[in-house]
Amino acid sequence: xxxxxxxxxxxxxxxxxxxxxxxxxxxxxxxxxxxxxxxxxxxxxxxxxxxxxxxxxxxxxxxxxxxxxxxxxxxxxxxxxxxxxxxxxxxxxxxxxxxxxxxxxxxxxxxxxxxxxxxxxxxxxxxxxxxxxxxxxxxxxxxxxxxxxxxxxxxxxxxxxxxxxxxxxxxxxxxxxxxxxxxxxxxxxxxxxxxxxxxxxxxxxxxxxxxxxxxxxxxxxxxxxxxxxxxxxxxxxxxxxxxxxxxxxxxxxxxxxxxxxxxxxxxxxxxxxxxxxxxxxxxxxxxxxxxxxxxxxxxxxxxxxxxxxxxxxxxxxxxxxxxxxxxxxxxxxxxxxxxxxxxxxxxxxxxxxxxxxxxxxxxxxxxxxxxxxxxxxxxxxxxxxxxxxxxxxxxxxxxxxxxxxxxxxxxxxxxxxxxxxxxxxxxxxxxxxxxxxxxxxxxxxxxxxxxxxxxxxxxxxxxxx
Length: 465
Description:
Layout: H1 2-16, E1 18-23, E2 29-33, H2 34-49, H3 53-56, H4 58-64, H5 79-90, H6 93-106, H7 110-134, E3 137-138, E4 145-146, H8 149-160, H9 170-202, H10 206-221, H11 226-252, H12 257-268, H13 273-276, H14 279-294, H15 302-305, H16 313-340, H17 344-347, H18 352-364, H19 366-399, H20 403-422, H21 426-464
Helix pairs in contact: 1-21, 2-7, 2-21, 4-16, 5-11, 5-16, 5-19, 6-14, 6-16, 6-18, 7-12, 7-14, 7-16, 7-21, 8-9, 8-21, 9-10, 9-19, 9-20, 9-21, 10-19, 10-20, 11-16, 11-19, 16-18, 18-19, 19-20
């Protein structure tokens, strides 16, 4: 067991640790990890190649939400439903735990760098989602379509090897396995977070919370097509309720907003941190947590994007780019502002969920603590359902189209959900980060040379008017 933990920790450090350290004025340094080194330049490249699509085509992203299912295949989901599934995992733990971690470690300035990573991440999300649409396949088990990075990586490698058909591609297999590992790790983090929140808010023993969580999840994920129907209801309700509640609290404290935004920009550019040597922490924590939250480039969301039945692949890409905006610019910002409009004297020295709960208690009394616990439960629950939707295509790629392998993975994820609620293993967090990190490496390696297909599709879409 110790060897496994050491391997996971070693791979985590390689992916997320400081690969390059740049000295900064004032005695500080800027540590850049492998994943940041891959994702940020890739996002900038795609932003330029798409001619700043997140800004230029934002109205078109919103219009794409109104398109209904194309109707070409039975049981297929619409592009909007695919957005709902990906939003279920994006608008999840990252919006609370990720934002709290960013501000705890990097201060208010980390929020600005989260915004920036979302802006350039939208272009990456567009490219990978459009590629998923271009390379999707019919799903003989669930109906509709399936696909994602495992499938477009496979097609890419076939082309590189002379077009000869193969059952597997090594790179696609590595991506699919990394995804399944990642989602098992996240399952444990989900239940652990929910059990801890309920114990703090309601003094409910973790065992009771975990059993209820697992039973509810099993009822949904073990049924053939219940996942999308549940998320269609759950995601809009939870996101809108959380958004309205936080906006109400922000407007209630509107007089302090100018000073909050001033603080964000001052700390973002290190006016205070450069002297103290903390500028690198501000930038990297904002960027890392922004990428963790919106998932752009990791290859997760394309697993849902491929299932969308839209009239043009680009429409799915636009919807997934919009999903990054909803996640980081809207929901994450709400969480950040709630904490930053709280008097610093009340949150000094606090970190993690204690920081968020203290902020909500300041704004709403004890009900604030309860509200955050319930919201975290909904966010995490929807994340679990969403990642099992992602897993469908990866399991099918690895083990073929059969209900046995699909059910076995669901049972494994449910077992991880149960274990995570009862015991907090720190390496489990690393396991999830290692999985998503490896997915990102394999995905970025392929979408860069394949991006020409998505860019040509974008040109064709714009010519069509």
